[in-house]
Amino acid sequence: MERLRPRARAARTLHTGLPRLLRLPWPLLRPGRLRLPRTRQGRRRAVQAVMLGCVLALLPATWMNATAAERVRTVADAPAAPVGLVFGAGLNGSRPSPYLAHRLDAAAELYRAGRIRVVLVTGDNSRTDYDEPDAMRGYLTARGVPDGRIVSDYAGFDTWDSCARAKRIFGVDRALLISQGFHIRRALALCETAGLDAYGVSVAERRDVTWWYGGVRELAAAGKAALDATVRPDPHFLGPQEPGVAQALGG
């Protein structure tokens, strides 16, 4: 034991010499043991740090909900708009995934009801063997939406890209955004930031594992959305303006 005392004194001297800011009350990891703060002040600081971290983590989601709360509708009570914007949600082989199919079903219903006149399908076609927009187009035409009323955006790689390109490339000013409830608020917040006058149509889904996963994923995606809304970066691919929406509306 006597041999350990000089080492202990040296460690104590080093600790007291550190700036006060560095002596945070986080648990110290040691081999085989977790040591929590022992003093009341240390425990209080640890709780405060955890609470602050939770608040900061939830701020983007709070911003999204506050921005979009008054603009979420269902298929039954959605207002009329020239364009329905359907976001990609993955493929099963060459066919839309179930969640994407439900979005497209809602778009077809809105078109038949006269709530939208043109459907802009936006998704990922970053490689030749993966083409969300063409799969979405085929699904819609099979359900009665005329091909001439469908416009494809092949560079909607994420929600911000889809919103920014709808405004800057396709000239969309007013639209109904069509997606599941866990995603629609983020889509609304980003599309309004991009300059669209938009309402969101929340597609009903049963609360299965995929739905809960989507909800948890949105907490992480909210941070990126807040950054995109602040920085407003160019989409991954911008390209020239396209007249497809204007031509479809005029047809």
Give an account of the 3D structure:
With 251 residues, this protein is of the alpha/beta class. The protein has a single domain (72-250), classed as 3-Layer(aba) Sandwich (Rossmann fold). The chain has 8 helices and 10 strands. The strands form 3 sheets. The chain has a 6-stranded parallel beta sheet, sandwiched between helices. Strand 7, helix 4 (132-141) and strand 8 form a beta-alpha-beta unit. Helix 2 (40-68) packs across helix 6.
Task: Give a brief outline of the structure.
Helix content is 48%, strand content 16%. The chain has 251 residues and is α/β, with parallel strands linked by helices.
Write the layout of secondary structure elements.
Blueprint: H1 5-17, E1 28-30, E2 33-35, H2 40-68, E3 72-73, E4 83-87, E5 91-92, E6 95-96, H3 98-112, E7 118-122, H4 132-141, E8 150-153, H5 159-168, E9 174-180, H6 181-194, E10 197-203, H7 209-231, H8 244-250
Parallel strand pairs: 3-10, 4-7, 4-9, 7-8, 9-10
Antiparallel strand pairs: 1-2, 5-6
Helix pairs in contact: 2-6, 2-7, 5-6, 6-7
What fraction, in percent, of the residue positions are helical? 40-55%
Shape: globular
Low-confidence stretches: 1-32, 52-56
**Domains counted in the coordinates: how many?**
1
Classify the secondary structure makeup into a structural class.
alpha/beta
Number of helices: 8
Order of helices and strands: HEEHEEEEHEHEHEHEHH
Radius of gyration (CA) equals 25 Å
